[in-house]
Automatic annotation (TrEMBL):
Protein name (record): Sugar-binding protein
Gene3D superfamilies, per database record: 3.40.50.1360, Winged helix-like DNA-binding domain superfamily/Winged helix DNA-binding domain
Family indicated by similarity: Belongs to the SorC transcriptional regulatory family.
Pfam families reported in the protein's UniProt record: Sugar-bind
InterPro entries the record matches: NagB/RpiA_transferase-like, SorC_transcr_regulators, Sugar-bd_dom_put, WH-like_DNA-bd_sf
Amino acid sequence: MKTGSAEHEHAMVRAAELYYNDGLLQSEVADKLRMSRWKVGRLLEEARASGLVEIKIHHPRSRRRDLERKLVARYDCSEAVVIESQPTNAATMELAAQAAADYLMELRPQPSIIGVSWGHTVAAIADRIPEGGLREPTIVQLNGGANSLRDTVDAGSIIRTIASKSRDPRTALLPSSAVVHDRELARHLLADRQVAGTINLAAKADVAVYSIGVLSPQSVLVKTDCITADELVRLNKSGAIGDILGHFIDRSGRVVDIELDQRTIGLDLDRLAAIPTSIAVSVGAEKSGITKAALYAGLCTVLVTESKIAEQVLGNNLE
């Protein structure tokens, strides 16, 4: 790690946050960041000398601890990670993805089974996992995917990216579309040994990482024809505001349109809620409503989000 490099700067920020904001001892910071106590001391000295640390940490990657504490106090989640909203969604996404990757890498003990969904957000998280950061993980797909994706944001590409950065990884793909065309086909698929085995393995995950989806014509599920235009209209009329792993819910966190939900292939919401650490990532102010619903329903133990969403979720200005 060269002095002045982006990696060195990020290490300095994380050391300062853990030491000054979280109150960890230097030895505990060293353990979390997997470096020597001497190196942590040097990073903290540099942070003070450079002006990075004053009364608060001045850096885009610094977290909004005030909003985090309020979210944890109000909702049934064990932790919140709130980054400062940036001028563009792309810049905010970059910070949120890095924060989610950091959180995953700092878990102790390291998870042995990691469940992941797919899409741009989870792909960005996978890209930011460091080389050799995970040891002997089993990486499993949480929900069915889609074939007509232009970018490498499909489940297979995401799982391969994480596996390529891991030591002795194992993988488990879910060979099915996110939503199939009829309930009879769904019933047969769920009875298939490989599909059922992957879903049962996903239910045993130590950690689940997924993004929160908003109900919109721009949704990846709509763009990939997993959801038709008629179904989108029907979901709107049913009160759906977004989806969690392809399961569409209303503002109370209840599944709407049971017929459609019976055609959805993947881990169901009850089993998602039972996973010890479920990390939901939400970026984009339009996702405030569905984020609040996910928190209300207890569908995540850890929320990674931006300050605009956190402020709206904590306020009373949601439509």
